[in-house]
């Protein structure tokens, strides 16, 4: 019964009938928004339908008594800006746009939307997430995921005055000029296709760069379970971020934590974190860190991973921690001539392999002590880049290189979904 009602709701919703259009928020709650026109354009007052032709030039959208003005030209509470006679749509912030620009007043501020074709949104945003030299099937899978996400956001925000923000981290939109011909071709090859969940709704098909071997379940990140965002094997071993290392001094970590205004521990003395291959309560089942216990001379705190990732700019939450004085990866060796005279120096790589000496740990398992040595470092050894949920961009590339088609790639990363063509 639930599925029948949800399906009926989708059929009745207005976004369904106009699925090719989407409202992208370019500016919100602004005092003034600069608009640059290189050709004459049309300004339409959406309150009464009246219009006027405006000459090319630089203008400022501003709000006065609940109405939008184009510099000193009165427009109305809502205005629409259109190109004229094959000219171009005016630019905002030196960025060019397609479709229509709609400006309106809200709470005494200026709001601007770009109403564009959904396919153009995907075409413009996808090059920021993909590469034209990647296999076609990988790009197709990303195009379908991006379109699905946009449809999900349109449904989610149907009661708001915009569908998606241009700064959305999942689908960042910069207007015209971002398109790449090969990627555009793959978007066109999958035109209109999207993923539907078990209830007939567009899937929130979020993506990640690289998961480090296994994706994360949404329930461990959002606290809410999605049937199609489950943990699955990844094929991202070719990712440049499959393995990464980040070194920080204890003083740096201490300063970053204090800058949040929430954690003051004094001089750091130890870090406690369960091993990545034996996850405890401080990790998710896939090994991603949820929190770390950090002790200092003035106290102890359990620090959430979101705070650490923001302050330290860690690539992912899938990492182990070591403390100690880092071992060199290169040996600075002298070069001698025939007469035994040094004529130069050369760096020689040191391959420790599995024989790299372990850093010092306390008696308690997972506790890494800090001695206060000025050369001491906290080393984060991690895998992957991003939140780890959904389709892995590098994993999709890996599957495509193994001759998987885009529909099989999507079915792998988004379980319990249906590809609507």
Mean pLDDT: 88
Instruction: Specify the number of helices.
Output: 10
Strand content: 25-35%
Structural class assignment? alpha+beta
Shape: globular
What is the strand arrangement across the widest sheet? 4-3-8-10-11-1-12
Radius of gyration: 27 Å
Helicity range of the residues? 10-25%
Largest sheet: 7 strands, mixed
Alpha carbon gap, first and last residue: 25 Å
Q: What characteristics describe this protein?
A:
five-stranded antiparallel beta sheet; 10 helices; alpha+beta; globular; 421 residues
How would you briefly describe this protein structure?
The chain is an alpha+beta fold and 421 residues long.
Q: How does this model look, in words?
A:
With 421 residues, this protein is an alpha+beta fold. The protein has helices spanning 2-12, 14-17, 118-125, 136-156, 181-189, 219-222, 250-259, 305-312, 393-401, 406-413; strands at 21-30, 32-37, 41-45, 51-54, 57-64, 67-70, 73-76, 78-83, 91-92, 100-106, 109-117, 164-165, 194-196, 207-208, 244-248, 268-272, 291-296, 299-304, 319-324, 330-336, 342-349, 367-369, 377-382, 391-392, 418-420. The strands form seven sheets. A seven-stranded mixed β-sheet has the order 4-3-8-10-11-1-12. Helix 3 packs across helix 4 (136-156), helix 3 packs across helix 5 (181-189) and helix 4 (136-156) crosses helix 5. The longest helix has 21 residues, at 136-156. It is globular, with a radius of gyration of 27 Å.
């Amino acid at each position: 019964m639930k599925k029948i009602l949800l399906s009926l709701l989708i059929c009745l919703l207005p976004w369904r009938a106009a699925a090719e259009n989407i409202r992208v928020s370019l500016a919100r709650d602004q005092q003034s928004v600069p608009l640059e026109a290189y050709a004459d354009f049309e300004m339409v007052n959406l309150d009464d339908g009246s219009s006027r032709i405006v000459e090319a030039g630089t203008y400022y959208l501003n709000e006065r008594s609940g109405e939008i003005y184009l510099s000193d030209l009165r427009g109305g509470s809502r205005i629409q800006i259109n190109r004229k006679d094959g000219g171009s749509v005016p630019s905002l912030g030196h960025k060019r746009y397609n479709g229509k620009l709609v400006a309106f007043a809200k709470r005494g501020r200026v709001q601007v939307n770009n109403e564009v074709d959904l396919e153009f949104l995907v075409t413009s945003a996808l090059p920021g997430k993909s590469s034209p030299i990647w296999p076609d099937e990988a790009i197709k899978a990303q195009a379908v995921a991006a379109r699905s996400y946009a449809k999900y956001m349109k449904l989610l925000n149907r009661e708001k005055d915009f569908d998606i923000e241009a700064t959305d981290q999942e689908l960042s939109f910069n207007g015209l000029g971002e398109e790449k011909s090969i990627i555009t071709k793959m978007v066109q090859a999958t035109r209109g296709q999207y993923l539907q969940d078990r209830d007939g709704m567009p899937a929130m098909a979020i993506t990640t760069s690289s998961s480090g071997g296994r994706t994360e379940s949404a329930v461990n990140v959002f606290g809410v379970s999605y049937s199609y965002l489950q943990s699955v094997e990844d094929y991202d071993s070719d990712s440049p971020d499959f393995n990464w290392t980040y070194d920080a001094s204890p003083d740096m970590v201490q300063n970053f934590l204090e800058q949040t205004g929430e954690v003051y521990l004094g001089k750091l003395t130890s870090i406690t974190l369960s091993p990545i291959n034996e996850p405890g309560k401080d990790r998710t089942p896939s090994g991603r860190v949820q929190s770390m216990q950090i002790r200092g001379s003035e106290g102890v705190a359990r620090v959430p991973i979101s705070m650490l990732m923001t302050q330290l700019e860690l690539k992912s939450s899938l990492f182990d921690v070591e403390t100690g004085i880092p071992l060199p990866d290169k040996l600075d060796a002298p070069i001698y001539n025939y007469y035994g005279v040094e004529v130069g120096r050369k760096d020689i790589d040191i391959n420790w392999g599995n024989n790299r000496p372990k850093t010092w740990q306390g008696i308690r398992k997972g506790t890494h002590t800090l001695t206060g040595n000025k050369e001491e470092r906290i080393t984060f050894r991690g895998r992957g880049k991003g939140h780890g949920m959904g389709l892995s961009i590098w994993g999709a590339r890996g599957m495509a290189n193994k001759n998987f088609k885009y529909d099989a790639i999507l079915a792998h990363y988004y379980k319990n979904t249906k590809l609507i063509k």
